[in-house]
Specification:
With 350 residues, the chain is α/β, with parallel strands linked by helices. The protein is 29% helix and 17% strand. It has an 11-stranded mixed beta sheet with strand order 1-8-2-3-7-4-6-5-9-10-11, with helices on both faces. A 4-stranded parallel beta sheet has the order 12-15-13-14, covered by helices on one side. β10, α7 and β11 form a beta-alpha-beta unit. The two termini are 21 Å apart. The structure holds threonylcarbamoyladenylate (TXA) and magnesium ion.
């Protein structure tokens, strides 16, 4: 990606306005939250979200947390059951993330939620984050503002060391007071702890008056980026009904073609429908279109989708990772890779 001149602005009303206009233009803004610095993008803009994955060099599409200004805004994204509502009222604003069923018509794109039908939502409690969210008025996805595989940043300098030249703006609001990411609870059926964080499990259990279930991958427990354990355990991944053929250089009669780049296969005329992820062969654009186009082609009723080769570099690695999962042989209904009785699919890896 071409180098950007990263601006570092001390937190001020002017910096908040700058953050707002950068987000509106699809740019990336690092800002302080009470847990760690987040790298923000307009959650409703798939191109901005694709840029965010590229800037972080995430090897796969790990779903992101949508940050909003208040509970009313969160209720426009997700479905709250009674317990989720109690938790939100008790702990928001604050370092609690709730994974909830995504509302039909939720404006947050499929790339941000990695094609899941759940969404992670949080109302942060840091004055600068709150001012930016209030000024922008739309949900902001914000993973920790580090390059993938590095530790989470708790100061503007950490962000600068990792991401200078890759993002437009860093708003410097001093050190993040908590320095530990938010606690993630899934409220999809039984309330389950997905990631321990800045609010202890004991605090949550005292509030609810009972013990809660814990779902954690071993590496998440070790405090790293963690595997997105929940996507495999709580919600079905988006995978097309149609069979998916990767690295296709020919098209069989009646297939749909998911193209990439300016040069189509010689027999592309066989395709019933063609969608091009990026006519110019740009991976960021392709990532932004991926989930939408897969869903559109699948909805056209074809039984097979031929996908042209995508270079396995930069964001292409993540695109191919998602395509491999969509192309993988299906587990019979009622079983998972772990042999547990479930209608759910195995998770993606981070
Ligand atoms: O404190 C925090 O939560 C910080 C600040 C910036 O708000 N953000 C943060 O984001 O830690 P990130 O992307 O580094 O971690 C988010 C975690 C990921 O492990 C992801 O798998 C999980 O949340 N997650 C997001 N959406 C999910 C979903 N729908 N189901 C299950 N897990 C989800
Ligand atoms: Mg992180």
């Amino acid at each position: 990606m071409p180098a950007l001149a990263t601006i570092i602005a001390q937190a001020s009303p002017g910096a908040v306005q700058q953050a707002k206009s950068t987000l509106s233009a699809g740019g990336l803004v690092a800002f302080p939250t009470e847990t760690v610095y987040g790298l923000g993008a307009d959650a409703t803009n798939d191109s901005a979200v694709a840029k965010l994955y590229a800037a972080k060099q995430r090897p796969s599409f790990n779903p992101l947390i949508a940050h909003v200004a208040d509970l009313a805004a969160a209720c426009r994204l997700a479905q709250f059951d009674a317990e989720a509502l109690e938790l939100a009222e008790a702990f928001w604003p604050g370092p609690l993330t709730l994974v909830l069923p995504k509302l039909h018509g939720c404006p947050v794109g499929q790339l941000a939620t990695a094609g899941l039908d759940t969404i992670a939502v949080r109302v942060p409690n840091h004055p600068v984050a709150r001012e930016i969210l209030a000024a922008f008025g739309k949900p902001v996805v914000a993973p920790s503002a580090n390059r993938s595989g590095r530790v989470s940043p708790t100061s503007a300098q950490h962000v600068q060391a990792d991401l200078a030249g890759r993002i437009a703006l860093i708003v410097d609001g001093g050190a993040s007071p908590l320095g530990l990411e938010s606690t993630i609870l899934a409220c999809v059926g039984r309330t389950t702890l997905l990631r321990p964080g800045a609010i202890s499990r004991a605090t949550v259990e005292r509030f609810l008056g009972r013990e809660i279930d814990i779902a954690m991958a071993a590496d998440a427990a070790a405090g790293g980026e963690g595997r997105p354990v929940a996507p495999g355990m709580l919600a079905s991944h988006y995978a097309p009904r149609a069979a998916l053929r990767m690295n296709a250089v020919t098209v069989a009669p009646g297939e749909a073609l998911l193209a990439f780049g300016p040069t189509l296969p010689h027999d592309a005329g066989n395709a019933l429908t063609i969608l091009n992820l990026s006519g110019h062969g740009e991976l960021v654009e392709a990532a932004a279109n991926l989930f939408n186009y897969l869903r559109l082609l699948d909805g056209s009723g074809v039984s097979s989708i031929a996908v042209m080769p995508i270079p396995d570099e930069e964001l292409g690695e993540a695109i191919n990772d998602r395509l491999r999962h969509a192309a993988a042989p299906r587990h019979p209904r009622g079983s998972t890779a772990h042999g547990e009785p479930s209608t759910l699919r195995p998770g993606i890896t981070a």
